[in-house]
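Data availability excerpt. The first of two example chains:
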Amino acid sequence: MAKVGRNDPCPCGSGKKYKQCHSPIEAAEASAERALRQAPDTLLPKLLDAVARFADALPPALDLFWNGKYHVHTVQELDEDEDRGSERFLTWFLFDHLIDGQTPFVRLAADTVDLDLSEAETALMAQWADIRLQPYIIEDLIKGQGFTVRPLWGDTSIPVEDHAATKRVEAGDLLIMHILPVTTDTNFITGAAAHLSADTLDPLREFAALHLADLQRSQPDATYADLICNRSHVFNHFVMALPRDGKELSKLDELVVHTRAMLNVATDSMGFGKAEAPQLAVPAVTEPVASEVLERSEPQTKPS
């Protein structure tokens, strides 16, 4: 469509010049969208700083997220041993950890007085209450721009902007991450995303099925959505068990077997049949399965 000149008649048919009619409105809308796209890079640091309000909940949450591997007295080892481990934990703590049934984010959203939020940041707060750590399958790549993903237990395609990540991922790969909705058709990765090859899909499904079956003991009607809301930390446990540097996938076998034994889930309750427990089929691997942690690129929109 041809660009409308400032002195041309406004396309709305008002009879006014474009500059006197819809041009200011569209300029204001474009400015508001730019502010929204830039707001995550200022809002997230404010929220992560405010996590200090929940200091008493941090030690048990740290133990839960890292499956007992790290504790408060060993927290300094996190970033040495785990790619951006502190950021991964704090992002999960903010959006996922439940304190008396509510996440720290929900509690902060209910009292933003001390956060000194801009108008754009306030608008984002209203969209982020349901953000959780969960697995996504990459469907399509948009070279140099981003990709579309689908939640592992969903059928909605979500566009994600991340021009740098498109150079390192492939269709069919998995990403375990938090996705931030920003505008109607704009979503970003927040913090770090665990990048898994397609070889891990079946083990991850079985691992999650075991945890869902365990959750259903206390919540018979629980679904994968409930698992994500109540036990998203188990996805980090799965990432922790992934082989690196091209090692064999046998550790995933061990993880699923250990999880089944630990949770004592009856195989027939998961539809596997009573006669014999399922054997985990692990494809051959030619490349490292989880050799990196992705992070969102620098702000996609620069101030004009």
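And the second chain:
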Amino acid sequence: MTDNNDFPTETVLSDGSVYRVVPVEAGVRAIRAWAEYPWPMSPAQALALRDRLGWTSSPTKEWMFTTDHGIGEKDASFTTIKREQTVADFHLSLTSRIPKPVRAEAVPIAERAFEAYVEALTAVYGQGDRSRSRGVLSVTWALPSDTSVDIGTVGRVVSVDIDSPASNEAARGEAQYFAEIADENDVPYIDIDNPDS
């Protein structure tokens, strides 16, 4: 397994800003807490999990959190499926944002952190599916619960999205619907979000 010291968790960049990376052990612990939750999850259960993890909500938006990972900003959030009042997905930043003029300085650190996270999550969930779309490198794991874990990187920012079984089921239903329409019209369906697929 990659040693967490293969990348610094704090780097002072040339403009004086600090680039922070969540240590792999802490990040994986948080990812597993959300991904392995016995779904479905209500918003109240999500807030209870937030409390167990020691995180705090934004004063105005309780679904946006500041974790204890030391990034120093709102770095986690969840969304809900309104009609069912269940959590659809959870988002967690694993690195801080960087001012544009010094972004290139953070890219090598982000790349090492991304690979360390992929290695750690592969040890837990097995081999994921690696893909690249519009410059975004990502690895996705489909868990037996039908929850999915997707870690991605855009240059210097690394984050993870956890989609609930309900969200994944809705996405499959939508894909099937559009595939059926395409068959009926004998016109190929083009996914505008993934034109290469």
